[in-house]
Amino acid sequence: MGYEVPGELAVWFALVTNVLAGISFLLAARGKAAFETLAHRSYHLFVIFASLAVAYLLYLFFSNNFAFKYVYEYSRSAESFLYVLSGLWGGQEGTYLLWLFMNALCGYLILRWAAQYKDYAMAVFSLVNLFFLLILVKLSPFAQLPVPASDGLGLNPLLRDPWMVIHPPVIFAGYAVAAVPFAIAMAALIRHEYTGWVNRVFPWVALSALLIGAGNVLGGYWAYKTLGWGGYWAWDPVENSSFVPWVIALALLHGLIIERRGGGLRRINLLLSAFVFLLVVYGTFLTRSGVLEEFSVHSFTDLGVNVFLVGFMILFTAMTVLLFILRARGIPSAPVDLSYFGREFAMLAALTVLLAFGVIVLFWSSLPILTSTFTAEPRAADIATYNTFALPLAIIMAFLLTSSPYLKFTAYRLPFAGGKVALALAAAAVVGFGLFYFLLSTGLTFSILFTLVVGGMLVYLFKSDLRKSLLPALAVFLITIGVAAAFGVSDYLYLLFFATAAMAATANVISLAEFLPCRWKLMGGEVTHFGFGLMLIGVLASSALGSSEKLVIGRGQSAEADSYGLTVQYLGMVNDLEHPNNELILTLDQGAGPDEIHPQLYFSERMGGIMRKPFIERSLLYDLYLAPEDVQAGGNTNGLTLKKGEARRIGDIKVSFSDFEMGGHMDPRTSGMRVLARVDVEYEGTVSTITPVVVHTEDSTGRPTVISEPARFVVADQEYSMSIERILADEGAVILSIPGLLPDTPADRLVLDVSRKPGINLVWLGTTLILLGCLISVIRRREELVKARGWRS
User: Are the CB atoms for 154 and 212 separated by under 8 Å?
Assistant: First the structure.
């Protein structure tokens, strides 16, 4: 039996038992109770075989079995434990297997919590599992190479980062959980019975939103600290493929609250429960079909499974649409309270904004497919296109979140509402259009948004209790405009953005006091909305208020970044551009003396391009971000070659190489082998002995690397740096570089982007609070589900 047999058998047995479970659950749902036991036992077996397949693939990774194509492509013998582990989800085959495994575990959520919807939901869920199993039969992670390799290619260098160890499992867990509400929604439509369905799906929609959101945040943080382009979100179509399901899941949470309180929006919620999952399937198609290969650095190539991706996308969509059309007229649903002062209206408005945002992002993300199909010139939307609608929608969302903590679910009718509303909107319009649009030419978008936000807030002030509650937020609104203007913000739209975001954050953080310390499980929404306000401030501050300066620095030379009052000196590279994880040697002087820093720049044969990893200096108010872009080759790179006892003159300076001094192979200072060159520098009769050092050690991934420790000396009041470029052990010689002194010193030039990211910490704090709010919501909704069933938690 070949080594591939156990893994492939596990996949095949998983497929058979999953099909048997699906058919048995369907028969049980149709009233044949005798199949209930068979259905459960078959599903348990399916979970066991799916787990065995994952365990066996992990065994192959950790045993360095490079006879397997997938192990060969995503691991190597010198890889660290974490990166061997993450090799499991380094490519398409492994991620489908991981996704199947998580899906298998999520089936137990339905078995335990779906109650009357369980059997139909499990039949649908088994169909979802079949999707992955057929792909794994076609695209097996257990395929072998014609000839076993002695070592593997290793993980994609961009994925060798601790954040990428956890990002994929988190986001695939979110995708797997998204299939649970989908299956229960389909079961509710099949049964045409909706009693309590909202309680069955609520916790899992919240959990899916939490996990997919966490995956997006982790991916954004990884991009910021690893890719070196200075941002964390590029509206890349592949990024958007996981962003859109998250936004729609957040919209659905608002709809579920409305349905749970008053029974409204049931049809929309059923559809959205399905579409969160359908968007995950569509996003999988976008990411893995190869259609975005020319438009996204994150895209996978087509590995021949498009027929499955398209087939299941059509199948699941057709199932959803057909069931909904058949059942729609008979789905009971209550009207939504559309009172402007009611919380249901605010939630419906938030749902609408989120839904519109998701649909627009989905459209622009699909532009490569649309233009490929209907035009001769395929193209993708640029970042400016996304920002055009994202910024106004964010302002409207922040406005809605300002009042939501203080609105009630009880109906309220404002006396003389028509006249008061007209008066408030008219006053806002006079300023928004009369002053800003016509006199100050601020643009139509700003004038419309200003009228909506200011007019909307004025209407709220007609209600006495809201007036009292909203005054602090309104004060912050005005103060923020003044502060932002003082910091140089002159764009009116940006001022309104900052002000509404700060207003929303203030209103929600004040409202938290109502829930602490005993009612914290009720404050998930307020924590999320507080985080949303902070995140918006951080997003705009770090992008619109940030600045950058391009420096071109010759080796051994310094350059000043005038905007930031700092000096950067380029001293060379630890290795060369062809060396994996090659580091640049720079000094950064911000007025308190130079500190040596090591951003990375190297050519990756695996990726076929230059990899960049920035140096980031963090502080409370901003990040200083130094991103190397390129090293432009100079002239002769031979340096000064000297044998032991040999001396050479460079102008009036005499340089003599005495000897090497070698440390142990495990030098306690470096955990590597340390080689020191003893060099005498003589000028006007004065001799200085200096000792440049080179250390042969291993980097964090276990790869051999060389660290240079230059020695400095002063001649005629000029400081120089001498480094060991190479050691020619067979010849007893050394090659030295002395930037600024040797005529044949390497003269390459570093192109460095220096930027400052003000408020970036608000992005991370805000997104963390959003996720914390989702977590609180999961806990609350699960407890409600337990109470609804009369179970003990």
Answer: no
Question: Which H/E stretch holds residue 642?
Answer: strand 640-643
**What is the CB neighbour count within 10 angstroms for residue 685?**
5
**What is the per-residue pLDDT for 792?**
44
Q: Is a pLDDT exceeding 70 seen at residue 640?
A: yes
Percentages (nearest 5) of helix, strand, coil residues in the chain: 55, 20, 25
Q: How confident is the model at residue 385 (pLDDT cuts 50, 70, 90)?
A: very high
Quickly state the pLDDT bin for 492 (edges 50, 70, 90). Answer: very high
How far from 713 is each of 35, 676, 682, 718, CA to CA, in Å? 85, 16, 11, 8
- pLDDT for 516 equals 84
Q: Are 645 and 680 in contact (CB under 8 A)?
A: no
CA dist 254 and 205 (Å) reads 11
- Residue 95 to residue 54: CA distance in whole angstroms: 10
Of 313-317, 379-383, 758-762, which range is least confident?
Answer: 379-383
Secondary structure of 729-774 as H, E, C letters: HHHCEEEEECCCCCCCCCCCEEEEEEEEEECHHHHHHHHHHHHHHH
User: What would the two tokens of residue 19 be?
Assistant: 């099909």
How many Cα neighbours within 13 Å face the side chain of 143? 13
The contacts of residue 325 (CB under 8 Å, 6+ apart) are none
The residues, ordered by sequence, that sit 6+ positions from 712 with a Cβ below 8 Å of its Cβ are 690, 719, 720, 721, 722
**In the structure encoding, which two tokens stand for residue 762, read together?**
């608000």
Exposure string of 9-39, with b = 16+ CB inside 10 Å and e = fewer, is bbbebbbebbbbbbbbbbbbbeeeeebbebb
- Taking the CA atoms of the chain, what radius of gyration do you get in angstroms? 31
User: Any idea what the Cα angle at residue 683 is, between residues 677 and 685, rounded to 5°?
Assistant: 110
225 near 627, Cβ under 8 Å? no
Could you identify the residue written with the tokens 């082998």? Answer: 673
C-beta of residue 298 within 8 angstroms of C-beta of residue 239: yes
Residue whose pair of structure tokens reads 């359908």 in the numeric block: 278
- In tens, the pLDDT along 447-458 reads 999 999 999 999
pLDDT digits (tens, 9 = 90+) for 175-218: 999 999 999 999 999 999 998 899 999 999 999 999 999 999 99
* Class of residue 678 by CB neighbours under 10 A (exposed 0-12, middle 13-18, buried 19+): middle
pLDDT at 666 over 60: no
Task: Report whether 185 contacts 274 (CB < 8 A).
Answer: yes
Spatial strand order in the sheet of 594-597: 558-561, 566-573, 584-589, 594-597
CA distance 463 to 416: 12
Q: In whole angstroms, what is the distance from residue 556 CA to residue 720 CA?
A: 8
Rounded Cα distance between 738 and 729, Å, is: 20
Q: Is the pLDDT of residue 245 over 60?
A: yes
- For residue 279 the two structure tokens come to 């968007």
Which residue type sits at 772? L
User: What is the residue type of 259?
Assistant: E
Amino acid at 115: A
Whole-angstrom Cα distance, residue 401 to residue 501?
A: 9
The pair phi, psi for residue 231, each rounded to 5°, is -125, 180
Q: Give SS3 for 300.
A: coil
Whether the CA torsion 455, 459, 464, 465 is positive or negative: it is negative
**CA–CA dist 427, 455 (Å, integer):** 7
